[in-house]
Amino acid sequence: MASPILLPTPLPSGSLQLNQLLTDPLNPFSSASFLHKSPSASKPATQSDPQYRSIISQDESGHLLSSISSSHRQNLLVLKADNMTLQTLEDPISTFNALRTDTSAQKFILDMAHKNQPLYYVVGLQSLQNPTRSKARIQVPSSRRDSKADISEGIFGVVVHKVKCLVGPPNEPHSLEDIPLQWSYHKLEQEEEDPLEELQLSIGLGEPLSARELREMAGIVSEEDDDESTKGTHKTEDSEDDGSGY
Question: Region (Disordered) spans which residues (predicted)?
Answer without folding.
Answer: 215-246
